[in-house]
Amino acid sequence: MNEHLTLLRAIAKKKVVLLVRYPVNTLSQFISIYALFAVLFFGGSAVAGPSLTESLGGIIVGFFLFTAAIVAYSGLSWNMTREAQWGTLEQLFMSPLGFGTVVSLKVVVNVCYSIVWGAVILAMMLLTTGQSLALDVLTVGPLLVLALASAVGIGFVFGGLALPYKRIENAFQLVQWAFIAFIGAPVGQYELLGWLPLAQGSYLLRRAMEGSVSLWEFPASDLGVLVVTSVGYLALGYYCFHRAQRRARRQGVLGHY
Description:
Structural class: mainly alpha
Number of helices: 9
Distance between the termini: 34 Å
C-alpha cells in the first residue's frame, strides 16, 4: 500500500511540475477554454438577447462538465504519446507495481486534475455571468465523478490506440465534438439517450445544480443508469487499452515513435 501511495505522490508531483515549468502552455490552455465560453456567452447575448438567460444555467453546467471531461479524457492519451516521445514508455512496463497500476494511478491524478480545472472554469463562468447555481458538494461531487468515468473509459480506448499508432491527436480531437452532443442530449425526453457516455451524468448534474435536487432525491432508476454506464464504459475502455498494449508489445513498437 505504501508503494502505491509513493507512486501516486510521484505521479501527482510530476503533473504539478510539468504545469509549473511550462506556464505559457498551461495559461494558454486555460485562456482558450475560458475564451470559448466568453465568445459563446457574449455572442449569444448579442444575438439572442434576454432569452439566453433562460438557458444560461444549463449552458454553464454543460460547459463545466465538458471542460472536466475533456481534461480527464485526453489526459491518458497525451500521457502515452508523451512517454513514447520522451522514450520512457518502456520503463513504465518495468515498474514492480505493474503497468496497469501505473496507468490506473495516472488516471486517478488526471481525474482529480480535471475536477480542479473544471471548478476553476466554473467559478470564472459564474463571475462572468452573475448566474447562481446550487453547489452541494455531496451531490455534485459523486455525480461528476461518475459522469467523468465514462469519459475516462473512452480515454482508455484512445490511450491504447496511442501505443501502436503513436500520433492520434486529430482522431481524439474529433471525439471532443461528440462529447458536446452527448452532454446536450435530451435525456429528459428520450430516456434511452441516458445510456450514451456523459449523457445521464449531464442530465442529473443539470437537475442538481439548476434545480437544487439532492443526490438522495433522484429516482433510484436514474442513479442506476448512471452507475451502470459509468462502470460499463470504464471497464470496456480498460479492456480495449489492455488489448492494445498487448498488441503493441507483440509487435515490438512500444519504444518506436
